[in-house]
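Re: Re: ligand-bound prediction request (bumping)

Still looking for help on this. To restate: I need the protein modeled with nicotinamide-adenine-dinucleotide bound, output as structure tokens. Inputs repeated here so nobody has to scroll up.
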Amino acid sequence: MVTGGAGFIGSHLCERLLARGDEVLCVDNFYTGSRANIESLLTHPRFELMRHDITMPLYVEVDQIYNLACPASPIHYQFDPVQTTKTSVHGAINMLGLAKRMKCRIFQASTSEVYGDPEVHPQPESYWGHVNPIGYRSCYDEGKRCAETLFFDYHRQHKVDIKVARIFNTYGPKMHPNDGRVVSNFIMQALLGRPITIYGEGLQTRSFCYVDDLVEGFMRLMDSPAGITGPINLGNPGEFTMIELAQLVIELTHSKSSLVHQPLPPDDPKQRRPDIRLAKEKLAWEPKVSLREGLTKAIPYFEQVLRQGRRATAA
Ligand SMILES: NC(=O)c1ccc[n+]([C@@H]2O[C@H](COP(=O)([O-])OP(=O)(O)OC[C@H]3O[C@@H](n4cnc5c(N)ncnc54)[C@H](O)[C@@H]3O)[C@@H](O)[C@H]2O)c1
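Reply:
Sorry for the wait, this slipped through. Here it is.
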């Protein structure tokens, strides 16, 4: 079962699981996901789709749970912050309850946001984070932190077999084109020939992982020996400033866009970079796709979205 399976990362995961011969139950309430993301899977004989909100209990027969359901971009998770916390916390309780009943392994899509605005670079899993508990990002950051707590308490108290991945910025085809995440923002602005918005000086850095690399990491963690619970960082340690990213996007889209600067949003981390030594050691995993290569693969998707949008408008 993949919760959030109609979302960006979830839909790639469903595809990969089907490709290796698994049966996949995709559970999603379509809050940020879309049928378009899984359209090509709907007729697959081993794929099943269930519209369900994981804040409600779920009784199904499954043998592995990937828990990805949760809006991931600030625009979406701040739109209904109470629901965001409920999805992380009530959702984790419901999915862990199901894992306990089914005696099955459960994977949690946690996030680098548990490190907040980190004072340690790069961030190892042993770093406890620097998180504002009452800010605009807290519904997401603290929700995910509480979900991790629940995973480890179900593990210690009920012997549930858990796998917790801390995911760093990921990009690729099927990302929501208008959700304010930096890669999709820059590509859309460049393709539309609009100015590219840089917050602050643009010297804050991020590391970007291509979605295929991430999904490979998910599956390796899920299939790892029971002793490996995580939390384990999954991300690409290559570090780029926002200015460098914007320039690369402009080059690859052959755009004439200029850069415009706007004030930094509150609690925006200055630097975020994963320490992936644990993933290398325990999972023999590291990202293979460079930013240039990944952007080259992702850009055609956004071009297609724009073409379809134009067709819809024309129609
Ligand atoms: N994309 C990233 O860079 C990134 C980074 C860190 C962590 N993550 C985590 O990975 C997971 C997937 O992220 P994504 O980028 O694919 O986001 P996404 O918004 O594309 O996908 C999330 C999916 O969860 C569904 N969903 C939300 N609330 C739900 C609920 N209550 N019940 C059922 N379904 C629900 C949405 O409809 C959507 O299909 C999330 O848990 C996110 O926090 C993503």
